[in-house]
């Protein structure tokens, strides 16, 4: 990976003036090197740990491309990274973000398959939320001509994860049924669309009530996240379902397993429920760990059930399966070309609005994906105090300046 770590970083210590935000890219650094804007996470914790800073611009190494970033995906996982609520997090300060898209600006020596000017989308092992990103070609994919940058930023992580869980792990086929939590979110909407590509697949979605009117057509049955989904599913399908996709850290594993039909597959792929307040809560972490139900393998064998786990980022960055992911991406791009799938974009935010964007996902407000649009100017501030609120309100934020007591109105796509 390109060298662009904290050692090369020269933080300006202050948020970049929002009016000069666009011009701040690619300025000459005092040492002669170029600088760029990037979102920096100064330490794990609340929203006040995020700021936009100037940082040394990376240059591509052998086998890498340098991307002039247009848009980045903001995922639930980024919120968990900010809190330090993940296994073995890297040491801050760090630039968050695992996916972006843009235009190839230059290529490293021995880099094959990409040329200057190519429109691309890419996975990055951190460092995506910046004006310029360098990443190995193994994680870079050409964008279809008709795909917009916000769509591309919403595409990779959600659709690849959804596809691999449904088709590589669970072997989704005609006539099957799938239960998915957080059905209105980025992954949830990708799951719903991919299920619709297979005949007669029934999708049982669970989501907050206010999203139901917006997403009701994307799933077959929709349940409020606050009701007992077990009972409701059984009323409709007494035999249960073939596939359960669970991003709630296994607190319902026992229930979900009992919902599986014979030869059914349960996949654990997230831990959204461990997020309660604005900062990591050791209580909720411990509670969720305690609630994870023990699974008896003998029972699995007796009942003909499969239990699986899935982590796309580990598959890519720790387990070296980028070739497999590339093949999956090719299949997804075919489905996109056939207009069978389309990323659902919730809203676009400037880099300077990253706190508000994160608050929206924390507040369960998003339907589809949040995008950081690198070329967007921040919208005017509204007098309000929403950035500092959080569900559990666990930590008082340090005051950071006038802007922190105001909220921006997002541009809803
Ligand atoms: N393993 C992998 O490879 C992989 C890849 C991508 C994502 N993921 C995981 O998949 C899940 C969804 O990711 P995403 O990026 O698509 O996010 P998302 O679904 O867009 O995330 C936001 C939604 O999650 C739900 N949610 C559940 N618990 C929550 C909580 N404690 N606080 C706030 N919202 C909560 C809310 O929907 P409702 O209120 O409607 O329930 C919220 O709108 C996450 O757990 C993420 O870590 C895993």
From TrEMBL:
Residues 391-402 have a biased composition (Acidic residues). Keywords: Oxidoreductase. Residues 45-372 form the Enoyl reductase (ER) domain. It comes from the Eukaryota. One of its GO terms (molecular function) is oxidoreductase activity. The keyword Ligase does not apply. Residues 377-413 are annotated as: Disordered. Residues 403-413 have a biased composition (Basic and acidic residues). This is Enoyl reductase (ER) domain-containing protein.
């Amino acid at each position: 990976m390109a060298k662009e770590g904290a050692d090369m970083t020269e933080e300006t210590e202050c948020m970049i003036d929002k009016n000069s935000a666009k011009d701040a890219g690619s300025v000459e650094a005092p040492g002669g090197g170029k600088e760029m804007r990037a979102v920096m996470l100064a330490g794990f914790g609340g929203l006040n740990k995020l700021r936009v800073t100037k940082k040394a611009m990376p240059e591509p190494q052998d086998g890498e491309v340098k991307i002039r970033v247009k848009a980045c995906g903001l995922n639930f996982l980024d919120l968990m990274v900010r809190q330090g609520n993940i296994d073995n997090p890297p040491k801050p300060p760090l630039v968050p973000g695992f996916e972006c898209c843009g235009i190839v600006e230059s290529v490293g020596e021995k880099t094959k398959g990409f040329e200057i000017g190519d429109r691309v989308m890419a996975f990055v092992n951190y460092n995506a939320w910046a004006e310029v990103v360098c990443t190995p070609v193994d994680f870079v994919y050409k964008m279809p001509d008709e795909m917009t940058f916000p769509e591309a930023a919403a595409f990779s992580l959600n659709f690849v994860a959804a596809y691999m869980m449904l088709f590589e792990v669970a072997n989704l086929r005609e006539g099957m049924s799938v239960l998915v939590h957080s059905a209105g979110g980025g992954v949830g909407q990708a799951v719903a669309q991919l299920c619709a590509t297979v005949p007669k697949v029934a999708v049982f979605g669970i989501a907050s009530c206010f999203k139901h009117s917006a997403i009701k057509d994307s799933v077959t049955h929709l349940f409020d996240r606050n009701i007992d989904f077990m009972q409701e599913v059984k009323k409709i399908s007494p035999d249960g379902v073939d596939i359960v996709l669970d991003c709630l850290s296994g607190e319902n594993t026992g229930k979900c397993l009992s919902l599986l039909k014979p030869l059914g597959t349960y996949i654990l792929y997230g831990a959204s429920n461990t997020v309660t307040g604005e900062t990591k809560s050791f209580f909720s972490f411990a509670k969720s760990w305690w609630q994870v139900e023990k699974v008896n393998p003998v029972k699995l064998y007796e009942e003909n059930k499969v239990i699986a786990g899935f982590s796309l980022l580990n598959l890519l960055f720790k387990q070296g399966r980028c070739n497999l992911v590339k093949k999956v991406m090719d299949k997804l791009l075919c489905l996109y070309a056939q207009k069978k799938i389309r990323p659902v974009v919730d809203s676009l935010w400037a880099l300077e609005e990253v706190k508000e964007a994160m608050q929206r996902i924390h507040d369960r407000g998003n339907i589809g994906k949040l995008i950081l649009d690198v070329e967007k100017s921040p919208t005017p501030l509204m007098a309000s105090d929403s950035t500092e609120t959080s569900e559990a309100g666990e930590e008082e934020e340090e005051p950071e300046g006038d802007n922190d007591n105001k909220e921006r109105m997002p541009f809803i796509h």
